[in-house]
Amino acid sequence: MEQQSTGRANTRIGRFIQYRPLIHELVTRDLKVKYRRSFLGYLWSLLNPLLMMAIQAFVFSHVFKSDIENFPMYLICGNTLFNFFNEATTAGMDSILSNGALIKKVYIPKYIFPISRVASSFVTMLFSMGAIIIVMIATRSPIHLTAIMCWFPLLCLFVFCCGVALFLSALAVYFRDVKHLYGVVTMGLMYGTPLFYPISIIPENMQWLIKINPLYHYINLFRHTLVYGDYAGFNTWFACVASALVMLVLGWAVFHKAQRNFILYI
Fold first, then answer.
1. pLDDT over 60 at 4, yes or no
2. What's the CA gap between 227 and 72, in Å, rounded?
């Protein structure tokens, strides 16, 4: 049994490697479609987070009087990661339905479609890192040695988004209402994640509600390594890894079971 399981795993890994060129083509296509007929093109990946940060920084610094140290950096770090999650999972959710015609014509491992959508959103986020660098320079933020580890929460978030995209894309094939309900879910997550407020303003007996949100830990670790110059705590690292792996396994299990009848519903 163990040899059979190992053999299946190796086959799936080999198949994934075999279809890497297709994933590359799908990612390239998504990026071209996103910025098609746009005068500024890929520059919007840089300008959009900067403009959003500027507006929110003005509102929360002058209107609501936020006292968070280096608030522009605090804000843009949170927004960049949350926007990636929102874009990746929303696009991944629609990936099977939008590629229904192709799925019916030729055999392609169906999980490639949600994974490629997450990957294209990840590339967009990497472009957005330029905006973070600009804000660091503008605010004269110190460059800490811990910044070399800021890739870790990004990698964990990528894995987490892959799991969510697999789960949602399978669910959306059978229940189209999921696409409408998910907008409400992401709005709740936006306000339930400390993007523009510190967790300290939440009563201590209610902070556990924020901490069960995986996005809090990814953003918190990213801020600590890049802005605060420390490695946060072990619990934060563990939460990042555990939530990513659990979501990936759950998403894969649901997707693998549901994909058998996709062709009947797409």
1. no
2. 11
